[in-house]
Write a structure and sequence with these properties.
The protein is of the alpha/beta class and 299 residues long. The chain is 39% helix and 16% strand. The strands form three sheets. It has a six-stranded parallel beta sheet with strand order 1-11-8-7-5-6. A hairpin with a 7-residue loop joins strand 9 and strand 10.
Length: 299
């Protein structure tokens, strides 16, 4: 039996705006102590998508009153040069968070770049120390997109406690850290988590059991209506640019979920764009302000 009412749209723009607004009070408190949260962003090369993301991060910093330190390096930048910059930023007390925009050119090891950032300034949440702390349920900086997914659920009234969450995608950026966040023995977590991936046989068998389904595999409209349980909550992390002759740009963005069909079965769903995407930047700002606060407390 089909749902008579369409799914509730989980508005990432609205929720992220509320999170950023909440941060203003904390930033004002830090300012009264003479502290201005600072975020340094290093961009290597001229990847168009990376440039768009970095500009958005810098605009948000300016709007919130977070000091933004910009470092644009050429595509042929040597790894040694980037690592030297990271060392300099690690030692700068005005810089509370460091972000190296991915992907990096092939001559630079992403692993070495990420591990060079001090864990207390790793506001992207990718340093092995923060990954380990997350898995252990300790205070840490969680990766921004998974943290954004978690915040979307909680602020929309869909507490994962006791629910079966199925995540399709096992990346270090989304799938694995989100599973770690949701399975913790903690408020806002306590979910039973299943992680599916490209080697999972009969994925639909698992996705149809999900109370909360998260699509994060980077395959356009992979999740079809037949793969979704009636009344499920669906988070679409995918951002895929496909050709569209009707658009001036010649392309359009779609997610990993076949939105038109799935929205007729789901209880709630995130759109693409305007769902998970805005949350990533909101959580980056949250982590940066948190880093500034912890630094002010000598932690």
């Amino acid at each position: 039996m089909k749902r008579k009412r369409p799914a509730k749209i989980i508005d990432g723009k609205k929720i992220s705006a509320a999170i950023l607004n909440d941060l203003r009070d904390e930033i004002a408190t830090l300012n009264r102590k003479g502290i201005v949260p600072g975020l340094a962003v290093a961009l290597v090369g001229d990847d168009p998508a990376s440039q768009v993301y970095v500009r958005a991060k810098r605009r948000t910093c300016a709007d919130l009153g977070i000091a933004s330190f910009s470092y644009d390096l050429p595509r042929n930048c040597a790894e040694k040069r980037l690592l030297k910059l990271i060392d300099k930023l690690n030692a700068d007390p005005k810089v509370h968070g460091i972000l190296v925009q991915m992907p990096l050119p092939k001559q630079i090891s992403e692993k070495r770049a990420l591990e060079a950032i001090r864990p207390e300034k790793d506001v992207d949440g990718f340093h092995p120390v923060n990954v380990g702390r997350l898995l252990n349920g300790e205070e840490c900086f969680a990766a921004c997109t998974p943290a954004g997914c978690h915040a979307l659920l909680l602020r929309s009234g869909y507490d994962p406690a006791g629910k079966h969450v199925v995540i399709v995608g096992r990346s270090n950026i989304v799938g694995k850290p989100l599973a770690a966040l949701l399975m913790q023995k903690a408020a806002g977590a306590n979910a039973t988590v299943t992680v599916c991936h490209s080697r999972t046989r009969n994925i639909g068998r698992y996705t149809r059991e999900a109370d909360i389904l998260v699509a994060a595999m980077g395959v356009p409209e992979f999740i079809k209506p037949r793969m979704v349980r009636e009344g499920a909550v669906v988070l679409d992390v995918g951002v895929n640019r496909i050709p569209d002759a009707s658009r001036k740009s010649g392309t359009r963005l779609i997610g990993d979920v076949a939105f038109a069909g799935v929205s007729k079965k789901a209880r709630a769903i995130t759109p693409v764009p305007g769902g998970v995407g805005p949350m990533t930047i909101a959580m980056l700002m949250t982590n940066t302000v948190k880093a500034a606060r912890l630094a002010s407390e000598g932690r």
